[in-house]
Amino acid sequence: MDKIEHKFIEVNGLKLHVAEAGGNGSKAVLLFCHGFPEIWYSWRYQMIAVAEAGYRALAPDYRGYGLSDPPPVFLIGKDFGSRVAYVFTLLHPDRVTGVITLGIPFLPTQRRQYHHYLPEGFYISRWQEPGRAEADFGRLDPKTVVRNIYILFSRTEIPIAEENQEIMDLVDSSTPLPSWFTQEDLANYGALYEKSGFQTALQVPYRSRNEEFNISEEKIDAPALLIMGEKDYLIKFPGIEDYIRNEQAKMFVPKLETVFISEGGHFVQEQFPDQVNDLILNFLNNHT
Questions:
Q1: How many CB atoms lie within 10 A of CB 219?
Q2: Residue 138: which residues within 8 A CB-CB, separation 6 or more?
Q3: Which residues form the AB hydrolase-1 domain (predicted)?
Q4: 93 alpha carbon, distance to own chain's centre
Q5: What's the CA gap between 186 and 140, in Å, rounded?
Q6: Are 42 and 34 within 8 A, CB to CB?
Q7: Which one is catalytic: 34, 41, 79, 243?
Q8: Is 79 a catalytic residue?
Q9: Does 221 participate in catalysis according to the annotation?
């Protein structure tokens, strides 16, 4: 990780942490947007790969996460970071050269209601409830919370708890980590979340889902790439698999290309970094 540098920037009175790799050459700047419970560290493999290919990589920790105006950019988002990337592109189309998302396609407003078709114990519904997840997570140290979520989200089934069961109780303490996620990785995540905790981290993706941005036309003109793991549990959200495989997203993102990684799960960029890096670099080379 010595190829990645760290700095802090002041934004609206807040000190934000940014990880950076690569120089200021002629190629594009790549802005990596993490998901939850991820942080800049989840992009470590991709940052080094694109930097070695001549690009400049920036990976901020969102406000309240971890240790926390470029020229036209590519946006790369994973999980709820995908929504961040697409909303920014809708609001500032002139500043975005292309969009790459992992795990989540562009979802127009009417497609974001899948949670209404899932049981009460659906993890997103639970985490939207103020205080519920805080109490659940608060029983455990940050390292254990991250461990449980990585195990849960690496499975092929949607995490759903019983009526009198909490989400953290879905993972047994004896369950091993995914083979591609090391104890060192877990220690790094745990140390980062020791500082920030999970309060803001829960509010940003789960309790801001209904926020509206007064966007009149949900249309992305920039080239876009969607990378999906075939075994990502998100594919089992109601209506999502048909939406992706039948390329319905092209109604909103006409220049979209979708690629599936056969054994990939929800954390595909950490599970199969070489494959994801190749896909990202090929896309960048084709659109710069």
A1: 14
A2: none
A3: 29-72
A4: 21
A5: 14
A6: yes
A7: 79
A8: yes
A9: no
